[in-house]
Amino acid sequence: MIASPASRCAGPASHAVQLEPGENVRRDGASFVAQAGTAWLQARFAAGLPAGRWISLAYRCSYHDRLARPLLRFVTAGGHHDQLAPAPLFGRAAWIGRVPHDAQALLIAPVDREGRFGFEIEHCRLLSRRALVSSLWPRHPGRVLEAIGARLIGRRQEADRLLARALASTPLAHYDTWRRERWRDFDPDGLDAPRSDWSSGPHVRIIAGAATSQALQRVPALLEQLARQPYPRWSLAVVAPEAAGATTLGAASGSERLRLLAAHDAASALHDDLSTDDLVAAIDIGDILPPYALAVLAERAAAQPAATVFYGDDEAIDMAGRHVDPRLKPDWSPTFEAAGGYVGRALFVRSPWLARLDAACAGDLVGAAGLRAVLAQAQAAEVAHIRRVLLTRRERATPVAHRPEGPAHGSLFVRHAAGHFPDVPAATIIIPSKDRADLLAACVRSLGLLAEPGSIEIEIVIVDNGSTEAKTRQLYATLTAQDARLRVLERPGPFNFALLCNEAAGTARAPVLVFLNNDVEARDGLWLERLLSWAARPDIGAVGARLLYPSGRLQHGGVVIGLGGVSGHGDSGAPGDDPGYLGRRAVPHEVAAVTAACLAVEKAKFDAVGGFDAEHLPVELNDIDLCLRLADRGWRTLLEPAAALVHRESASRGRTAAQDQRYRAERAFFAERWHHRLRDDPCFHPSLSLASIRTALG
Predict the structure, then answer these.
(1) Angle between helical axes of 437-447 and 470-482 (0-180°, round to 10)
(2) Do 454 and 335 lie in a common domain?
(3) Mean pLDDT in the chain?
(4) Taking every annotated instance into account, which residue ranges of this chain make up the domain Glycosyltransferase 2-like (predicted)?
(5) First to last CA, the chain
(6) Which of 402, 537, 544, 635 has the highest local Cβ count within 10 Å?
């Protein structure tokens, strides 16, 4: 179905919708071209926009498009209301929500990059509240009961908010149903028509190992499923023991697309006939490539000729035929890959990489581990994440939990695990504080763990924001008398966290700054070395720690941009030792931002971006803003979970109505400055929910 005709559905509760190019969009045949990062389509409702009603707006996108959350803008007389819609991972999705009462028009931005895209409205249906509740009950019974209760006591807006949050998240355990609801068959004659010449596109060589005769018997099935790929340029290389051969394969051995090699054959035999633009993947004999996989890969390879390494998302299928364990990955995260091996088997590389690997025999390149060495050598500009499920793993009868491959011997990760931290720089620890001597004393006392012989050089700057209690002054006198490394910087006046930190940073004598809340307590003497050793690296900006509530549950394990509308701590409240989705909280990994409750950054980098924004973000979100500005300069933000501290989270300040009002103003400024990042955190897959603190499907 082409985007221009009205899209209809049967039934009296359906609305016909037509899409027309709007700002920054032009039509090009059956598709559209975005001429800016945010490009708008105008949705025309034949019967008028159903303002105030709950609707299901289902849409389709091309599999070739870079996956993004569509942005819906409901235009009103006084401005607009923006809503993010689910990313159509499998070609289709639906936004279910209430159209604002004052909405006059609907604009849709399906993509977030310039270039060609395909987008269609499948249907728009009016929904009753009863139908909503019935559909949500199996997945979110608790939230449905909350919404019903809120409505019964007259809190209708609260009830709507609870329903909207429930609609925007699905537990990972319901992945099979979620997937079926979003699946659309690949349509190479329509929405997924080739955008490059497939007859001359890159050849894709699939390498599969078959160590047993039973595995060899699965080769015909693998050939059959590859034959269902619309993309025509592919071949299969099977690496088997020397004794295996045509007898075992039967008729499949005659396929011109099949090449059979012995494990001891030269590795060059796997790629000596390929050109430099061709691609190679190593999979298990039982893996499944979805019908769109090779076409999507070929289109991305054609669109990004400088990329030499491509990886996609993957999933598993269990013994009952249910799709489970979706591995929806972040964009390229070299530290996470080196420490945790998150990329896995959905990995495709240009053929010249095989000649550069230290592989003598064909058997050395069997399995994802054979190509994993490429990831350690590739430059960031060479690696592309394809935000689609490109591979389905067959789950074993006895499931085996995902265990990331360990880092190479002698790497920074091994030295960290052993407690060895090379070239740790000196640090200035900056602690803003006002009264609450009990919290500050506990914080500084915990830092005494760093005073052991041979520890790193530090100074501690307490930035006092106008303390008035006598016991606080007495504490300052005691601390400065006991430890010459500690000094107090007097900065009275209205509370401005960003300004306090900036002024203290201006007096720092060490090359690395460590910002620490006065309600944080260290648990051991290694947390600082762990942070500093990362912060000193030239490619790293801010480094954060794993922060725990006093109960031991997780308070901070990295910030997700867009979570809850602006930003949030993903999985807050989870068990403190929970490894998290993809095992990311078990190893150092990239995140979009970390909290300044415990944040390390080189002073030179901090100064290069102008420090915290004390003018626009004096109290809230200044740490997130700092990390994003560092990222714009090319410095990655890391979370080091091995550095664990206890955080009482704003115990020293509390929360008032005036502070809530100020927070709303700072949220609005942050959202305007970083509107493009609220939609797309590169460390958080767009098919994951921004409405759920615990990792869920969106």
Answers:
(1) 10
(2) no
(3) 91
(4) 428-552
(5) 25
(6) 544
